[in-house]
Specification:
The chain contains 13 helices and five strands. The chain is mainly alpha-helical and about 325 residues long. Helix 3 runs antiparallel to helix 7, helix 11 (about 260-290) crosses helix 12 and helix 12 (about 300-310) crosses helix 13.
């Protein structure tokens, strides 16, 4: 068990140290641009790193790992202090009756303390201040006119590629569609999607009436526009990172729908699938006494259910919050 915990921490550290910038363009990149991009998506040259916040994010990741092991016991522990959480978990009857789980928790905590000290020292040694003016920085990070920098798939960093190659990726996706390219106007799309929302609000199945309501399909935004498709290169799928291998690249399509009425449908589906995920996990726990190894995202699903107060679980949390029985 201790080896498992050590290996898990090593994988996390390896991922953090991994490459975060990939060049698929025909030209070499500016050294300054590559160096800035390698600092990560949240880096800004105008602010220093918030050490407290970064440590809190680190703690949240460790808490998620622990919750996967002892979710039933952990969900009733409300403290955010990770050390207190570990002590309380060790006192639960489930952990006491399972020495292997107890040993694994101890090993995780031991490795976490060690890595936390090193991580904190690294944060303190980093100087994220920059005295350069905004104009100077913009000039440094500006790619060549025939290049474009886009976010990579799986949140692994950034990819610089020729614009012609990125446009070719759009053509590749269009060619894979069953019905080919759709020639429609934005006005036609917006009119029909709003009609669909109206029909959906009037025809909610009985089995979903406790989760979604007619108001969930009401579009109240003042601005409406069709969503745009942006591509995220699947850089991890490439065996060789080079311009010559860009023909083997595939991209994940992400639809940006900030002002698209289709966003309403996405939110409704999110509610439904959150309840489905909770039901599957809860049933698996009832039958086998542990979390399903194939189901992830249960914590996020429960938090979404709490916020929407939908279904039996959402109504339960609403009652407990208003009555003050859980704090």
């Amino acid at each position: 068990m201790s080896e498992l915990a050590t290996k898990e921490m090593e994988n996390i550290i390896k991922d953090l140290k991994g490459e975060s910038f990939f060049n698929l363009s025909s030209d070499t990149m500016k050294t300054e641009l590559a160096e800035y991009i390698k600092l990560g998506k949240k880096f800004t040259p105008y602010c220093k790193v918030n050490i407290k916040h970064e440590l809190e994010l680190f703690e949240q990741e460790i808490t998620k790992i622990v919750n996967q092991l002892v979710w039933k016991e952990s969900q009733y522990i409300k403290t955010k202090n990770i050390f207190v959480r570990f002590r309380l978990l060790q006192k639960t009857s489930f952990v006491k009756q399972n020495p292997e789980i107890s040993l694994l928790l101890s090993s995780i905590l031991k490795n976490y303390k060690k890595e936390r000290i090193q991580f904190k020292m690294q944060l303190k040694n980093k100087n994220y201040g920059n005295l350069a003016t905004k104009k100077e920085i913009e000039e440094v990070v500006k790619p060549n006119s025939d290049q474009i920098v886009v976010a990579a798939d799986k949140n692994v960093g950034y990819v610089c590629m020729d614009k012609t190659d990125l446009l070719a990726q759009y053509d590749k996706i269009n060619a894979k569609q069953h019905f080919g390219k759709a020639q429609i106007t934005e006005d036609w799309y917006l009119e029909n999607i709003k009609q669909y929302l109206q029909q959906a609000s009037e025809n909610i199945p009985d089995e979903l009436a406790n989760i979604v309501s007619c108001t969930d399909f009401k579009w109240t935004e003042k601005k409406s526009e069709i969503g745009t498709l942006r591509l995220m290169p699947k850089i991890l799928k490439l065996k060789r990172i080079s311009k010559e291998n860009v023909e083997n690249l595939n991209c994940r399509g992400i639809k940006s729908s900030m002002h698209d009425p289709l966003k309403i449908v996405q939110k409704a589906l999110d509610k439904i699938y959150s309840h489905l995920l909770y039901f599957i996990e809860n049933e698996f726990w009832r039958r086998y006494g542990r979390l399903s190894p194939s189901v992830t995202g249960i914590e996020e699903a429960i938090e979404r259910i709490k916020k929407t107060h939908t279904g039996n679980l959402g109504k339960f949390w609403m009652k407990t919050l208003t009555s003050g029985t859980i704090c």
